[in-house]
Amino acid sequence: MIKTAIVCLLLQVSVHAQDWPQFRGPEGQGLSKVASAPVKWSDSSPNVKWKVAIDGLGWSSPVVQDNRVWMTTATEGGKSLRAICVDAAAGKILHNVEVFRLESPGPKHGKNSFASPTPVLDKDRVYVHFGPNGTACLATDGKVLWKQQSLKYNPVHGAGSSPVLVGEALLFTCDGVESPYLIALDRKTGNPRWKAAREPNPDQKKFSFCTPLPIEVGKTIQVVSPFAGGVTSYDPATGRPIWHVRYVNGYSVVPRPVYGHGMIYLSTGFDTPTMLAIKVDGKGDVTETHVAWKLDKGAPRNSSPLLVGEELYIVSDQGVATCIEAKTGKVHWQERIGGNFSASPVFVAGNLYFLSEEGVTTVVKPGTTFTQVAKNELKAKTFASPAPIEGAMFFRTEKELLRIEAETK
User: Fold this and answer.
1) Residues 6 or more apart whose Cβ sits within 8 Å of residue 247
2) d(CA 51, CA 379)
3) pLDDT tens-place string over residues 46-60
4) For residue range 63-93, what is the model confidence (pLDDT) as tens digits?
5) Which residues share a beta bridge with 389?
6) Do 311 and 332 contact (CB within 8 A), yes or no?
7) Which one of 72, 102, 226, 233 is CB 3.0 to 4.6 Å from 242, fit for a cystine?
8) Which CATH superfamily is domain 2-302 in?
9) So where are the chain's domains?
10) CA-to-CA distance for 299 and 273, rounded, in angstroms?
């Protein structure tokens, strides 16, 4: 059943090019199959179809389904946690629902928000997550169907990991300062199905923020989930570990992995991140046998990698983009594209889009030589990753959501 659900989700991508239903898109890897997208724009250019003000602060990325854009936000200093739905064509707010009301939302990092995890959409359901402050399921008419607030942990810097649907389960990480774990909730009720305790390195910090990635390996589904001190692949039906790789200096992991060529590609953490390529056909502890290559220079702390064909693309927090031969780890090019980076790049209509914290999007042609296509400035802070649909892209800034359309010829 789980395998069928994943395969069906992948098949829907080719039919519904308007959908971008979770963090990093249909397959969770930043890849869009749309044929047309904007290439050049500015705040005042005519292809900015609309802008709509979003109250509060939230760095969840926009997700799109059935001509509706969903995101979360936090108002009143984080005391009101909300789900927002915007009409994708008109830019009109359709729903602004208070999901949780808190006396105190707890601590967060200065660059974080109380509404950073990205929602996940599935037909007539919207799943929103606010870390230890709660998880909920809404109908697409805005009605709250269930809430789950029993999973308490200390994330240190606030919530970061986005939820993911696998079969009948909603998975997300609870990697706090003590006793970190991965949890699976029943998608229909919000009740826990299983809980997988982590085994972090006892000599380093335990908290982490990475969104798990479901992958198909042969005839089985694995859920790959990096955390502080290692990465484990789990059976999504039971939570049992399949394989594990240990690494040092790897806490506060943020970038979501990508998968291809029989390998998972991930960044190991915050202080001194390393890119790893790990073969996924192992069992047990495969630290010494299944790491295909490592790369230290230019590894990201926040932005997720992007795998397009034979090449892997990353951008460091300081704005150095790198193109790597995915199978071998050979570096084809490294270029300083400028700015600071937290948002994850996307591949849309034949181009790579790198969005900086300063609101500047550098558009690059994929390939083994660096070719910049355009550089576009919105003059607004953003940490959210863009969401493409056919002929347009949605950008969330600190105060607004924008729809930018492909240029007319």
Assistant:
1) 229, 230, 231, 268, 269, 274, 276, 287
2) 14
3) 999 999 999 999 999
4) 999 999 999 999 999 999 999 999 999 999 9
5) 392
6) yes
7) 233
8) Quinoprotein alcohol dehydrogenase-like superfamily (2.140.10.10)
9) 2-302
10) 6
